[in-house]
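Page 47, continued from p. 46.
Same chain as before, 397 aa.
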Amino acid sequence: MSETPKAAYRRLIEEGEVRPDADQARVIDHFERLYHELSGYPEVADRSGGLSIKSWRLSNLFRWSGGDKTPPKGLYLYGGVGRGKSMLMDLFFELAPLKYKKRVHFHEFMLDVHARLKEWRGLSGKERAAKGGRASEDDPIPPVARQIAREATLLCFDEMQVTDIADAMVLGRLYKEMLERGVVIVATSNRVPDDLYKGGLNRQLFLPFIEKIKAEFEVVPLDGPTDYRYDRLKGVDTYYTPINEETTARLSEAFFRLTDRNVEDRDKVPSDELTVQGRKLFVPKAARGVAVFSFKRLCANALGAADYLAIARAYHTVILVAIPQLGAEKRNEAKRFVTLIDALYEHGVKLLCAAAVAPDKLYEAGDGHFEFDRTVSRLMEMQSEDYLHRGHGKVVD
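Result:
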């Protein structure tokens, strides 16, 4: 048998990669349980056309040692920012003994779901049949759930939060369909289930989904006393100036400190990719919720609010390098920078950056100078202790 989550967690402590933490050790026991229950669990993609779990049980009683038992219970892991939820889920995901598995930020998953629903509605009957559905199947949720089930027996969602009524109206039925097909779901969230979509429009329609989470998932808190994310930021400057070898090196050191990586492994840092309105947005470097971009990539190219919101939702920390002093001829770059900072600020994203000059000198003249004054104020606030303690995804009013 390969290394289990519990053994891997102990090894990381012994190697000094993580600190001993009683709350994390308690949570890892739940991942250990799920790991063993998934061993030998049949992949959804291998069940005839993604049959419902009820039909599948009847036809596979002698193919799985689990017999007619129900599928393993998923996990809903919640707690304060920086407690290690994503780290523990990622550890489990890498070790999970399944071929078909997917780990995705919750917002990216919902964007993909809405795109699939839209596509299904636009298909002809013949095209629906070719995709494994019924020609007359106008309701897109069951066929989309079948598509997802064929792609992943295990779905791991990071930072589950529901703020959009379109997401809220889809989630209940979609989850029901996926669970009936034996998909096992793990989710992390900053919110206890009862606080999901709190204050949202027509929230009463969302309440059955909350009850389903509480009934069909292990709901596990992780809210220990240490905010490891903030702990890593202690003593780290967030705004560096000017742009030179020294400030570049200090930003690089900050990245490796925030991601628990060795500087010697700088050539092994992976890139990432976000899907934004059907387009792909390349992320040059990303690890453990920290992304690195150049100012030129984000603000000199034709990007907009949708791109910046996707970044703000996907990463808790953004490192932005080489912000130049902007003149009137760079008004488009300045306007995009305003939109970028708004998105990061509103979602509590921590910003580390290297700039040619201090915030109040970045854009002193040109179209949109008045709006840029607000950006200067936000750049200053984003360096404060209060802001650095703010949870990721907690949208301000």
